Structures are given as structure tokens and as C-alpha cells.
Amino acid sequence: MTLFERFIQFKLINRQLITDQQATEALNKSKEDAWRMIALSYDNRDSVDTCDDKFRLEMIKFLLFINHQYDNAYKIIIRMLNDYLSSGDLALIPFLASVKYHDVSLICCIVEHGTLAQAQLLVQFMASKPELESLFQDLGNYRKSDNLLNPVFMTSHNSSLKLEVLMMFNDHNIQLDKAPNGQSIFEGSMDMLEFLVSDRNKIVKFTPLFIDVKHLEYVLDKSPLLINHNLQIQLAVMLHQHDIVQLIYGLRQFDSSEYLFELTMDGRPDYDMFKWLMDHHTSISTSYLERIGQIGDTIMADMAIEQSNLIRPNFSLTSTTIIDV
After folding, report:
1. Rg, C-alpha atoms of the chain
2. Are 184 and 207 in contact (CB under 8 A)?
3. What is the DSSP string of 160-228?
4. HEC profile for 43-83?
5. 3-class DSSP state for residue 208?
6. Whether the bond into 180 is cis, omega within 30 of 0
7. Burial class (CB in 10 A: 0-12, 13-18, 19+), 245
8. Please, what sign has the CA dihedral across residues 62, 63, 66, 69?
9. pLDDT of residue 220
10. What is the CB neighbour count within 10 angstroms for residue 210?
């Protein structure tokens, strides 16, 4: 059973809508557009003609006739796009640019898995088809907000050309949708970070959290307003990153609303972090004692009582029960 037949079996594709003629016509048109533009840039077409037509036709049939009401359709579309783009082939780029996607960003797939040649061909094709401008505007859009669609520019995974491709799109005034909203952890290279922080970056909205103190120090020096102090210190406490906690603590005062003490108790208790926060916290609130009572941690209880007595002599636990386990 072929991959395409499996799609039909699992109702990802409606059998009655598929015709070989439609797929063949779409393939021929895409190849014609691609080879015309490639002729302007490449002497050897074989270097960018890396897939056979059988695979290309399956791609076309799938994208033309996929049942978008299927819950995981967008995940399979992303997987197939990534498989194709990883081949370096160019023949389907004009076709892929002309498809109306649901919950998928073609441009992000190219950044993550594609080549500079594919990105350049996409830009050329978009420039040659002003009548499709409204369709092209959606090629960088995310619509899903789940973890599968975390911004590709936040990691160094997959394509070694990621930064080069991203900068090429940026220089052609292409923008990625600003969703998913909120902060994401940056795990990319320093070169990528330098670009994202720079004034040159017009393609993405950069709202980072950091797990590498060197990355954090760089952004605090170059563009400190990008740092959300509350979220950054909460992440650092959860990950037991003392160097980042101390760095952020030196920037401002924190109070009990950040629940930093409570975060030291998630999973395996971090006694060193708990002690450091007690020694340096600006608030004398003891609201975290209730959480200590809930988890029954006598070590933290003794540490908290000792610290509280230093601040308020004769302090006692009158409303919190510690269960010795």
C-alpha cells in the first residue's frame, strides 16, 4: 500500500476528488514556472532537481485534496512539507506557494528544513505573481498555538542554513506571524541571537526566555527591555539556575507575588535555592509556609522558621501544620 493509499484509508483524503490529470497539470505548471526562474540563476538544473515526479505527484494530490477537518491534518502537512524541503528540490516551490494552507507556515518550514535556493525561488515567484499577493501574505502565518509550532528561529535544530535563510526572507520584507503569543525559550546560536536582537530584524517579534546565562547577559546589554524579569526569574528558579537568578535579582526587587519560594518546592526540593531566596528576598512574607505544610518537608520548615525568627523573634507556626514524613 502506498503512502497516498494510506491517506485515503484513514480518510485524510477524499477519494472521489482526486484525479491524476489535475495533479499532473499542477506539477507541469509548477515545473515550468520553477525552471523558467531557475534558468536565470543556475547553470546546472540537475543540482536542484532532486526528486522524481512520482513523489511530487503524491505531494500535490495530498495538498490539493486533504480533508482539513481531520484533527491532525496540519501536523501531517508539516511533516510532508519538511520531508520534501529537506530534499533540496525546487520543482514544487511555485505550487507550494499557491496552496491555501490551514494552520501551517510554508515560510517557517523552509527556514527550518529548506535551502537558500528554495527561499530565493519562493521570493522570485512571489514577486512575479502580484495577483496572488493576498495568498502570499498567509505563507508566514501560524494559527495553531500549541507547542508543535514554537518559533523555529528559537532553536538551532535541523537546517544549518537557518539563519541565512531567515535573513534572506528578512531582507525581502517578509514577516512571520507574531503568533504563538508569549515568551519562548531561546536555544539557538549566538549568531542567531545577535540578528534577532539587532535593528536589522524586521521578520519576527522576539520575546525570549533564556536558559544560557551568556545569552541573557548579551540581551541585557544590547536590548534589556526584551527581558521579562518575572517570567525569566521564575524559569530560572524552576530549573535551579542560580547564576541566572542572581543576575536577575541584581536588576530589581521582587515580592511574594512571584511565588519564587513555591517554585523551589516543585519536583525535587531545591534547598540551596530556597535558602538563597530567604537570605536575599526583600519581602518578609511567609505565605510560602502553607505550601511547605502541604508537602510535609521538615527541612524547609526548619529553614523557614530559623529565617523568620531572625526577622521576627518568637515567630511560631500557628496556622500551618508540618507533617513529618
Report:
1. 27
2. yes
3. TTHHHHHHHHHHTT-----PSPS-EEEBS-HHHHHHHHSTT--S----EEES-HHHHHHHHHH-GGG--
4. CCHHHHCCCCHHHHHHHHHHHHHECCCCCCHHHHHHHHHHH
5. strand
6. yes
7. buried
8. positive
9. 96
10. 24
More reliable by pLDDT, 78 or 309: 78
As a whole number, mean pLDDT of residues 157-175 equals 84
**The pLDDT of residue 87:** 92
Q: Shortest CA distance to 49 belongs to which of 94, 89, 82, 87?
A: 89
- Distance between CA 139 and CA 136 in Å, rounded? 5
What percent of the chain is helix, strand and coil (3-state, nearest 5)?
A: 55, 5, 40
Q: What is the DSSP string of 239-252?
A: TT-HHHHHHHHTTS
pLDDT of residue 247: 95
Model confidence, pTM = 0.79
| φ/ψ (deg, to 5) at 155 | -130, 170
The set of residues, in sequence order, having a beta carbon less than 8 Å from that of 155 and lying 6+ positions away, is 187, 188
Could you tell me what percent of the chain has a pLDDT over 90?
34
d(CA 237, CA 219) in angstroms, rounded, equals: 19
CA distance 198 to 314: 54
Query: What cell does 169 get?
Result: 526572507
DSSP state of 323: P
The rounded distance, in Å, linking the Cα atoms of 107 and 101 is 11
Grid cell for residue 123 = 521570493
| Cα gap 105→39, rounded to integer Å | 27
Cα separation, 212 vs 170, in Å, equals 26
* Domain residue extents for the chain: 3-181
pLDDT in the model for residue 309: 62
**Amino acid 304: pLDDT:** 79
What is the reported pLDDT for 48? 65
Cell of 282: 526583600
C-alpha cell at 58: 503524491
pLDDT at position 277, please? 86
DSSP structural state of residue 181: P
C-alpha cell, 255: 515580592
